[in-house]
Amino acid sequence: MSTPAGPSGSRERIVFSDGSTADLVRKEDGWVIDINGVAQSHLGDAAQPPKLASIRWMLAALGDQAPQTVAHLGGALLALPRAVAHRWPSARQTVVELEPALVELTRSRFPLPAGITMETAEARSWLEAHPGAELDAVVIDIFVGNRIPPAFTSLECMTAARSALREGGRLILNSVAGPELLFTRRELATLRTAFEHVAMIVQGSALAGARFGNATLIASDSPIDTEAIRSALAGDPSKGALVTDLDPIIDGAGPVGDADQLWSPEPNLPDASAALRLLEHARKAVDTLKTPAD
């Protein structure tokens, strides 16, 4: 894949249609979209495992059978669609992205692999307009300001996704788990209402409430190939694990409806600003020591 050149550490400001902003950051191993200090997408060498654990988890959640048709709701730099295209070149993928700035950025500067098409549309409306689409997989990976908006947390959304899937198709959601698991519990209960089989990839520390992190939710009307997913996760440095015994986690939580207008919680991330300032002071001190005396 060809990407635009630029020195490591360089930043470009992206202005979204609602006036909010993000930074396109050049890294040594690719490009990152940074929103309020959180990496939302990383684009690097397609032949290497995706940099972000959340992308590796969603790729694992697809199992080991090549999907022929996949719809991705949410685009960013298309990290997951590109990984799917590299692993299964015959897959036909549609990416639905609402933000024109991201669509233009991707189309103009980060060429799409064969088999991927992009549509500029509101993803929930697109999903509801495609019942009977016979898709092998629907992936929902939509965050607004680092939070999942209510249109993609509800039973009505999950039901629309099921209607777009073929028999045995799979819904995959990039979701969250954190110190307070009520949102995660309710999302799992919502999926259980729409699908017979539900599982989750998560880190033990997030599930135990020790930290805020991602969770990949998986749902299907057919049994999920758990061994293939566990095999794909084996040895992953993130320590993400597949969880199938969900009753103790759901623990009586109720499903979410559109009327609830439920957003995912604000990310509860550690403040690294002080540590970064110390590192910057240390770097300057080292540079001063390296400067020859007059």
Describe the structure concisely for a colleague:
This protein is of the alpha/beta class.
Structure description:
This protein is of the alpha/beta class and about 290 residues long. The longest helix has 18 residues, at about 275-290. The chain is globular, with a radius of gyration of 20 Å. The chain has an eight-stranded mixed beta sheet, with helices on both faces. The protein has a four-stranded antiparallel beta sheet with strand order 1-2-3-4, with no helix packed on it. Helix 1 (about 55-60) packs across helix 2, helix 1 (about 55-60) packs antiparallel against helix 8 and helix 5 crosses helix 6. Residues about 270-280 have low confidence and may be disordered. The protein starts with 10 loop residues before the first strand and ends with a helix. It contains ten helices and twelve strands.
Keywords:
single chain, 294 residues, alpha/beta, 8-stranded mixed beta sheet, 4-stranded antiparallel beta sheet, 26% strand, globular
The SS-based structural class is alpha/beta
SSE sequence, one letter per element: EEEEHEHEHEHEHEHEHEHEHH
Helicity, as a percent range: 25-40%
- Computed CA radius of gyration, to the nearest angstrom: 20 Å
Number of helices: 10
Shape assignment: globular
Report low-confidence residues grouped into runs of 5 or more.
271-282
Major sheet characteristics:
8 strands, mixed
β content, as a range? 25-35%
Number of strands: 12
Mean pLDDT: 88
The strands making up the biggest β-sheet line up spatially as: 7-6-5-8-9-11-10-12
For the terminal residues, how far apart are their CA atoms?
A: 48 Å
